[in-house]
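Service request form, structural biology core

Requester: graduate student, group of Dr. S.
Request type: structure prediction, single chain
Budget code: on file
Notes: please return the result as structure tokens.

Sequence provided:
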Amino acid sequence: MVTAGITPDLSRLFPAGTAVSHLAVYDWSSPDGLRGGSAHVHLTCTEGYVVVGGRGRLQTLGPDGYAETPLTPLTVAWFSPGVIHRLVNEEDLQIVVVMQNGGLPEAGDCVLTFPPEYLADAPTYRRAASLAPLDDEVYVSDERAAERRKNLAVQGFLALRRRVETEGPAALENFYIAAAALTRGHLASWRKTWETGPMAAARRTGEQIAGLERADHRHLRDGRLTVLDPPADRRYGMCGRLATYEDT
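Core staff response, request fulfilled:
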């Protein structure tokens, strides 16, 4: 993960400033009877999946309408900003996730598909998205909170899907407007994270090409191997239990 305002050692940055994690997709039942994760959208990051075990489906809503993509071992699928996505777990679905712009999703580049009344303003959205206990649930666990959040997002996703299937992709416009408004306060920090991570890595490639054009190969002397041990802990993510390689 790239910390905003701190330029990383580019020789040790994960390729192109992306981030990698392992996802064990939730097997909790949802309002429509399917098991899986929360539906959500990213505003600036393309997300890639490499299926490493199990079986499931990827449900998407976007400019091309509604689609379902089967997920089996070694399937590779990715989607760009604006594609609302939901993972359905049919049999122990395990995925390696590669995320563009490492650090931005952790900094808020993600909006869950809650029903419209929960998207009206940032405080209302934050309360619904939080994994902290509700006032009247003293002993709630993170798992209960994550499952409650997931069910609310699926509820909104199902309503959006019905609208898209009857009205076409234009039915997503109000959700996009709300998502952009909810993330507006994060944009300055997102820019810093992008500039010091993914953008810095891309500029470094340009410098290396320019050096080679001058017959200058000195950057090769700075090459380094970086190895990260498997993450020890998993956290409750949007789609499942997430093992994140924090240094990517």
